[in-house]
Amino acid sequence: MTLFKIAFTNMRKNFGQFAMYLGSLVLSELIYFTFVSLAYNQSIGIIFKKWELGGQGVFMAAAFVLIFFVGFFVFYSSNYFTRRRKREFGLYALLGLRKGQIGRIIFYENLMLHLVAVVSGILIGVFFSKFFSMLLFRIMGLSIHSGFTLSFSAVVSTFLVFGIILVVTSLNGYWIVFRHSMVELFKADVREKNPPKGSLTMSILGLLFIGMGYFLAMRPVEESVFWNEDWFFYELLFILISVILGTWLLLRFFFPYVVYRLFKRKSFFYRGTNILTVTWLRYRLKKTAGTLTMIAVLSATTLTIIGALSSVYTNIISFAGASNPNSYQTTWTTQTERREIYEAIDESKTHSLIYHEQADVYIAKVIHQSKEEQADIYRRMTSFSIMSMSDYNRLALKLNDNLESIDYLADNESVYLSPAGKFENSKRRDEWVGKPYDMQFDGVEQIYHIKIKNVYYHTVFNVDTVHSVLVVNDNVYNAIAKKAMPKHIDIFQVTNQDKTELLDQKILKIFGGDTFWWNENISSFYSNYHMMSTLVGVLLYIGMFMGIVFFAATGSIIYFKQVTEAVDEKPRFEVLQKLGMSQKEIRKVVAKQVFPVFLIPLVLGISHSVAAMIGVSTNLLFSVTGPVMVSTTIYTLFFIVYYFVCVDTYTRMVSTGDD
């Protein structure tokens, strides 16, 4: 019998043992192929080219990250699977096969598994790529038909990447066989002779490390001496290392300490089936500390990525609408340009002009009182666009009858228009608007002392051409107008402004042709909104995709580890069944001993992600509560599903089937 036939027969007769590893391979290849297919999708490429965005470059960069992560996940699964088969390899050696021949059998098995996984992943991925491309277009706010496509480049990339992974995993199998003697291959994993008692001192140290990381992560940027250009990267690295180290110390010393205390508490230890659960945990928690730390960190990473990008997407989409209230806004428009804009709107069959308004603003530079204020851009504004109270009330009424008007302002008072929404950081708000500003206009010697009396959470100008708007009373405005040079603004409001793609093309050509990120002469609601939604939509999509991959990996690693450990635990449960333990009682024992393995990293992961998101909210000045609660709830529900699936599988594997 040839070695290939031995490998094929072994896989056919013991397919149940290979099914779990094959499932992880199919999942990995499906995820990678689907993602790479999107990177090569022509429809997506056209969108990125249209808006002059480097979206496909972002996709390809994310694909490289995905390669390393998928490679790690497959290697981890393969390593566990191969190590659990050491006795089988020992039997091959006992039957006379040389180690080189055993290694070739491992390679043939891997080759067949990878071929099945690649083909299955590609076939399933063709359908999934359609679904995910539709999801991407939905996130971008675009109505584009996406059919079933098979990208040759994506297929080649998938075969190449997983061919490399095949070689690495096969070499790892060779290494496991060659580094162990026949006797060592037959030996089971050695159980700890002296189970750990944990350490309260090391546990407290772990909590201190985590607390230190949390404290630094949640602080406002301007209040930390470390958050500057020179120390920024090092503080991020320090926070990461501090939290990971603290997590490992907790899992390595605190939870064994808790289990040991439960073991010493006889009233609890001898109650029901606790003796079995506590004993199992005493011998397992120390070995699983590293794995649980990795799962906790991956869980935190998953929740932070999804929560942060969901929050950014929600807030930026809201900002994209709020910061572009006008269909078209131009600066220093000539009579010829105004006439051409009127003609373009008149020629449109789907849009009509609602109104045309004009206003002048004056750009003021802030004079900082100290070098500290000048150096710290987070504490104070650096410039303002000054408009009159009467112009504001007129434009606000045109935009929306419900927009708040201004009845009175003293000569030294103003209202700040903030389309970004409410300040999440009250200290930052106080720094920005608490003290009066000293400001000066180009060519004007006089210094104006103006205090922000109130903040309105809307604007009347598109912020890409008129930003940081301060409304002052007409007396102050007229005095400024006599001395300073204005910035003249024309506003054209049209119907159906969210569907003005063809009209945009005509009007943008009047001011320079193609669509740009920001055009200093013209601002378009449609272009600005869709550029923002496309860019943040791509980032959110990639983040969600990565989050799904991380989640699948974390759940699968726990599941894979527990199910493979069930093989070692089967003799123990067989003895318990012979002593009269029922199937229901076995399931109860399994559920209790598996529960901490799922609960501990989940709780730590949620805790870490909440700390990270508080830091994001504090420094980016927007709310993250809604997206974080939704993502955490969904993640927890899926983790619960993983838990029950694992309990069911574990119970079936260790049970003989007798009640």
Structure explained in plain terms:
- The chain has 659 residues and is α+β, with helices and mostly antiparallel strands.
- Helix content is 67%, strand content 9%.
- The chain contains 21 helices and nine strands.
- The protein has helices spanning 3-13, 15-39, 42-50, 55-83, 86-94, 99-140, 152-178, 182-186, 200-218, 232-264, 266-269, 274-322, 335-347, 371-375, 389-399, 426-433, 474-481, 501-510, 525-578, 583-620, 625-654; strands at 328-331, 353-366, 383-388, 413-417, 437-441, 448-456, 469-472, 487-494, 522-524.
- A six-stranded mixed barrel has the order 2-3-7-4-6-5.
- A hairpin with a 6-residue loop joins strand 5 and strand 6.
- Helix 4 runs parallel beside helix 7 (152-178), helix 12 packs antiparallel against helix 19 and helix 19 packs antiparallel against helix 20.
- The model has no long low-confidence stretch (mean pLDDT 79).
Q: Order of SSEs, N→C?
A: HHHHHHHHHHHHEHEHEHEHEEEHEHEHHH
The percent range for strand residues is 5-15%
| Average of the residue pLDDT scores | 79
Total strands: the figure is 9
Characterize the largest beta sheet: strand count, sense, and whether it forms a barrel.
6 strands, mixed, barrel
> Which strand order spans the largest sheet, edge to edge or round the barrel?
2-3-7-4-6-5
Over all CA atoms, what is the radius of gyration?
Answer: 32 Å
Alpha-carbon distance between the two ends = 42 Å
Poorly predicted segments: none
Helix content: 55-70%
- Based on secondary structure, the structural category is alpha+beta
Number of helices: 21
